[in-house]
Amino acid sequence: MNNVPPLPPVPVPVQTQVDEYGFHVPIKKEVRGSVASDFASSPSSKAKSTVADSNSSLAGITRSKSLRYSLKGLPRSDTGEGSMGFGRKLSRALSLKISNSNGSISPAGPVIPIDPAIIEKEKTWLRVLDAGDLKNPQNIKQVKKLCREGIPGSLRGRVWIALTQQKHLRDHELYQSLMEKQKAMDSIEIFDVIERDVARCYPQHVMFIDKDGDGINNLRNILRTYALYNPVLGYTQGMGFIVGMLLMHIPNPEDAFWVLVSMLEGVCKGFYESDLKRVRMDAKVFDMLVKNMDPRLAKYFEANQIDGLMYIPQWFLTIFTSTLPWPSVLRIWDMFLCEGSKALFRMGLAVLQTCKQHLLTKCPTTSEALSYILHIPQDDAKFSPEPLSKAMMRIRLRSRNLEKIRQIVEENGI
Q1: What Gene Ontology molecular-function terms does this entry list (predicted)?
Q2: Residues 319, 386: one domain?
Q3: How far, in Å, CA of 179 to CA of 138, rounded?
Q4: CB neighbours (10 Å) of residue 148?
Q5: How many C-alpha atoms does 289 have within 13 Å on its Cβ side?
Q6: Is residue 43 part of a domain?
Q7: What residues in the chain have per-residue pLDDT under 70?
Q8: Contact call for residues 103 and 20 (beta carbons, < 8 A)
Q9: Domain end: 167, 195, 224, which one?
Q10: Which of 38, 145, 255, 331 could be stapled to 26 by a disulfide with Cβ–Cβ 3.0 to 4.6 Å?
Q11: In terms of domains, do 390 and 302 share one?
């Protein structure tokens, strides 16, 4: 008689639903006497898992020279003006639409009553947008306050376009020329690298879950077109998360492309260069800020041999998309595009202050501490937008002081 081994159990497929941000998450199941959390598959944890995937760890970017590629000597087309493509239909349609206060994608489902507070916030933003330049000295104080409170999801893409002031960079003819050129080109090394990374960007989001869908194609095309637009920078791992986030809120690929260009020449300048000098410097600046603001936490990090280079690259290069709960990710993006890198430092310090008690009492080892810092609990209310925003506001950090510290770090090679 043959001893036939038993067949392995058939895995039970996990049932999912689309959350308010467009991510597939497990359906919460009722358990006898309690409710199971099933919260492990939050949006940030999906982004986080893709970052931690083999050969794609952003923490490893600081050590790898092979992740960034360049295209040199490619000619640019003649310049030409493009149009913004955004009308004023939204203001006329406010009374007819369902408002989504957090994200830009709402799954099909029952009609949700409109929150009057959100309507008022939308009307305020429409008035601000109609006033013109958001970063004009007459407007910036109000705009900064509104961004810190969170931009309504219905207007987030339009506000991001206005905040990045990309209108002066737009060149429709150049964009079309480069877009067609990259589509016609044979596969080259940098395109192969982009192709591998595209599949890792938000794989559970409805926009990118179909590998042959418009979302993935737009993500790929924008990254490839940018590699031709800026052959010196080319492509660096982490840029896909930025483009993916933009496409979730800016449906027009050309608009998203020019916002990317503006970000990489403005608030993110130097982030993705081959030697990652900017990110390395920011990590050292962050270490100095921790020492000045919280000596006890700094002493804990020193005892565990933890420095900013172990977590700042993942935080800053993805602008926290791989770390924080998604509502908080959206909030930091709103502030970052308005205030620049100061917002990243304040958010980072606020996260550490929120983590502090857990780190000091429950993370005696380096690995436990880093695991907690890089994988923030997605269902912990302490890391939701309002508590983190309040923690940020308690941190006094001026842009000129930040630049002074940067200068000290650069001059002394700290």
Answers
A1: GTPase activator activity; small GTPase binding
A2: yes
A3: 38
A4: 17
A5: 29
A6: no
A7: 1-14, 28-112, 414
A8: yes
A9: 167
A10: 38
A11: yes
